Amino acid sequence: MIGPQPSAQPQGPSPGAKAQEPLEVAKEGGGASQRAKQPASAGPAAAMELEGSPCLGRVVRFLLPHTAIEAPLPQEEEQQFYRGLERLLGPKQGCFGQLFAAAGWADVTEDRFLRKLLVREGQGEAGRPQPGQEVTVKLLGVLEDGSLVEKDPMLTFTLEQGDVIQALELGVQSMQLGEVSFLLTSFQYAYGHLGRDPDIPSDASLLYEVTLLQIRDSPDLGLLPPSTRISLSKQKRERGNFHFEREEYQWAMQSYQLALGILDSPGAVPPSPEEEEELQEHQVKCLNNRAAAQLKLQLFEEVLASCSAVLHIDPDNVKALYRKGKLLSERGEDQEAMKILKRALQLEPTTKMDPNDPQPFKDTS
Predict the structure, then answer these.
(1) Helix, strand, or coil here: 175?
(2) Residue 206: CA atoms inside 13 Å, Cβ hemisphere, count?
(3) What pLDDT is recorded for position 27?
(4) Centroid of chain to Cα 316
(5) Contact 59/52 with Cβ under 8 angstroms?
(6) Rounded CA gap, 116 and 66, in Å?
(7) Suppose 299 and one of 162, 246, 294, 347 were both cysteines; which one would form an S-S bond, judging by CB atoms 3.0 to 4.6 Å apart?
């Protein structure tokens, strides 16, 4: 059977074993310990001695019973999901390969590396989500060995903003409100050659059951309070960091740009002085991260623009000063570069300000 199996019932004590004695105290006298006898049924692993201090003159021995912790049974929705997989794959595991060529599946992409099998129809074409809209889905996903690696009863994301893997971006756009479908994806549209530590190995195909629960327009940023905009921006920035670490620099740059757009939107509610300071702090992080992605993509003019934007907010930002000085030096603008790098060195005297050093700082924050 595919999926997690119920664990065996814990074994009780042997029929001849006596009831445990939870605490045993032995008095010591005349320099020798006169301990009460341990029950014959208690083996060496069943007892633990706690030596008391000499002034107490006693030894405390705890008798620990043999215990087994039963693994929780899969929830009902997981059981239904695995029953559906068994009907789809049969009792054997590791059969995704045959599904990429199986009849009855619709190809979401022309290369057939992302396919969909309808389980329950939705509410028609009028209920199909559009790019930029916010969707909520229920999600279960497994590897070929049946390991459950994705589970979210209410996953919310905005289409075509890089918030989720491409399999979900493209697959959900092909669905209708209320629809339930299996999505089969090769690693190209999932977690790629890197996988996802610790549960998804490299080059892993995945099979999802997706239910499209809600479709709605994205919120009007101008109506959101500063605290909400900061929170949304942080989510986009962290997603950008995820892409950056995977060397998906184009996606990372897009996420950082989206984060900046959220922060830069004029709000109906003016921020407090504390919120204004926090908004600027997040702007600096997003701009510096965008500059790091642009640098990886060799968009040097854009890097200079991002660094200048940082320095407009925070003139003493060492990371922006270093990047700008390094690029100006490479362009032959030595006088301006030396001035900027000296300023960075004054602010961070322990930092190695070598223009040829590709990474004196952590790239993203």
Answers:
(1) coil
(2) 30
(3) 39
(4) 33
(5) yes
(6) 49
(7) 294
